[in-house]
Each structure stands twice: as structure tokens, then as C-alpha cells.
Design brief:
It comes from Sphingomonas xinjiangensis. Residues 249-269 are annotated as: Disordered. The chain has 322 residues and is mostly helical. It has helices spanning 5-12, 22-36, 38-49, 57-80, 109-133, 152-159, 175-196, 203-233, 236-252, 288-296, and strands spanning 98-99, 143-144.
């Protein structure tokens, strides 16, 4: 049974029950973390103190490389039926294997074509960042892409109220599940690159980071548009995207930095929500700690969990206490 206080609070929250009220959702999770996660927070503060030094450009690029390892392996397995090539996994730090995953059967030929393009893009990102870092590039850490009731995907889906206790979420079962799993990653990737941009000092690296950010935004738009099309035929798909968005917002502990794909208006005024933007029309940002809150599936400060069971490699590896 899942006893993590964060996940228990999410399942008991109004959002998980299908009742509106995100403020109450935050209060419920915050209270559970304060009461049930005290030891984690104490240990997390010690971890955070060890990560107070200003990150170097190499630290920031390696942090991004961890995320690219996660995305690239997910797409490579789901779309091509294979993991990232061995020559793109080596480096400094603790190397790890990828657990789980299998190829998705695409019945929508157009979606399959777009998924293959995204897969090749993500592989190129891994190769590019490794080339920029040279001998400083980190190795691929252990990554959980499995589908058991205790897998990272299932914990994330359960926290969003998509599945019940003891059930599994299988992102490889069908196209809709694949899209929701990819949606979980891509929106976070966009906010991660935007949030990390101010940490870079080398103009060449800033330019490269901006280029990857743009591509990740293209990917996010493709996936969100695909979810929109499926949601127009099956409105419950919009509900699932909102549930994932709310779960991400709860984990990172910040003001609303996320949006699902639900359109607004009706009839001739119906407007899609392909680009999740703030009131100024800008993409959202997340700190490295907030990104790791989602990757580790926790609101506490820790150095491992969720999709990275042993943590990420590199010097930026601690989630925020939110």
C-alpha cells in the first residue's frame, strides 16, 4: 500500500474526488506534509544546504541532460521499442538502468509520425548536450518507466486521481495513455528550460538552451493539440489533462504554474488551450527544485524518488520543500 503522505493527501483531496477547489487541495496536501513529512523536511533542509553554491553552466546543462535522458528513453521505448543507445548513456556519476516500458501500437498514423519525430529530436538533444559537456557529461541515472501499482507512472496517475489504490497506469496501453504520459513530461520540460535560462552565463550555452526550449515547446504544442482533438471527441480526456495539471501544481507548491488542455467558451467562441500561458502571454517557469518535485513525485526536499529512484546525477539534485 502507498503510505507516502503526499500521495495520500492527493487521493483524499477535493480534486481527486472530482470536486472543484484547488485552494482546499493545496491546504490538504500542505497539512499532510507538515504532519507526516517532518523527518523528510529535516533531512531535506540538510540536503538543500549542500546545494547552496551557485551552479555552473556545466551544472545547469547536466541538470537538463537528466531530464533529456528521461524523455528520450520514454519516447524511444514507447515509439521505437528500444532504449537510448548505450553510447549515449555513459558519463560521470552513478550510471543506472531503465526499468520497464514497451512499444505503443499507434492506430493514428499521423500521431505515430509526430511521435517518431519527437523521439528523434529527444535523442539529438541528449547527443548535443553530451557533446557540449564533453568529459563533464553525467551518466544516465536509474529511471523508472514501469507500470506496476507502485511505479512512478502509477504514483503520478494515482496522485491525479486517474486510478485507484492498487491499480496501475499503463502509458503504453493505448494512444490516449501515451499522450497523457508525454503531456506529463513535456510541459515540465518547457518550464524547466525557461526557469534554468537565468542560471546560465555563457552566451553560447544560453543560445543552445533557448534552441532546446523552443523545440520542447513545439513538442508540448503537438501533444496538447493531439489531446485537444481527442478531447473534442471524448470530453473525459480534458478532465484527465486537468487532473495531471493540478497534481503537478500541487507537487511544485508554487502559485498556479500549469494548465490542462480544456478549451474555453462554447459554439462559435470555443477556444483551444494549446499554449499554456500566464496573464502576460508568457510561458511559465519552474526552478530546478520545483522540477525535481515533479520528477521525484514529492513536496519534500529530497534527492531521489519517482521517475529517478536513486536520484539524478550531477550537482543539482535536490527537490524543493514546498
Amino acid at each position: 500500500m502507498d503510505t507516502d503522505p503526499d500521495m495520500m493527501a492527493l487521493r483524499r483531496s477535493p480534486e481527486a474526488e472530482g470536486v472543484p477547489g484547488r485552494r482546499n487541495f493545496f491546504r490538504a496536501l500542505g497539512l499532510a506534509t507538515a504532519l507526516g513529512g517532518g523527518l523528510s523536511l529535516i533531512g531535506g533542509n540538510q540536503l538543500a544546504e549542500a546545494q547552496t553554491a551557485a551552479p555552473t553552466d556545466a551544472d545547469v546543462l547536466n541538470f537538463a541532460l537528466n531530464l533529456e535522458y528521461l524523455e528520450s528513453n520514454f519516447y524511444s521505448i514507447a515509439v521505437l521499442g528500444e532504449q537510448l543507445p548505450a553510447e549515449l548513456r555513459t558519463g560521470t556519476g552513478t550510471p543506472g538502468a531503465v526499468s520497464g516500458g514497451r512499444q505503443v501500437t499507434f492506430t493514428d498514423a499521423v500521431l505515430g509520425q509526430m511521435a517518431r519525430e519527437i523521439t528523434l529530436n529527444e535523442r539529438t538533444h541528449v547527443a548535443f548536450l553530451r557533446n557540449q559537456l564533453g568529459t563533464a557529461a553525467i551518466a544516465q541515472p536509474a529511471i523508472d518507466l514501469s507500470v506496476s501499482p507502485t511505479s512512478a507512472f502509477s504514483l503520478a496517475a494515482r496522485s491525479a486521481g486517474l486510478i485507484g489504490e492498487g491499480e496501475s497506469f499503463d502509458p503504453y496501453l493505448n494512444e490516449e495513455n501515451f499522450l497523457l504520459a508525454a503531456f506529463l513530461f513535456e510541459d515540465v520540460g518547457v518550464t524547466a528550460y525557461k526557469g534554468a535560462a537565468p542560471l546560465l552565463t555563457n552566451k553560447t550555452f544560453i543560445d543552445a538552451s533557448a534552441g532546446i526550449l523552443a523545440v520542447e515547446a513545439y513538442h508540448s504544442a503537438i501533444l496538447r493539440a493531439s489531446i485537444h482533438m481527442k478531447g473534442m471527441a471524448t470530453p473525459a480526456v480534458f478532465d484527465r489533462s486537468e487532473a495531471i495539471s493540478n497534481a503537478r501544481d500541487t507537487l511544485d507548491g508554487a502559485p498556479d504554474l500549469d494548465q490542462g488542455v480544456r478549451p474555453s467558451g462554447s459554439g462559435d467562441t470555443l477556444t483551444s488551450n494549446i499554449a499554456p500561458l500566464d496573464a502576460n502571454g508568457l510561458a511559465f517557469s519552474r526552478t530546478t527544485g520545483q522540477v525535481l518535485n515533479i520528477a521525484y513525485l514529492t513536496r519534500t526536499s529530497t534527492d531521489r524518488g519517482g521517475f529517478f529512484p536513486n536520484g539524478v546525477n550531477g550537482n543539482i539534485r535536490v527537490s524543493a520543500a514546498s
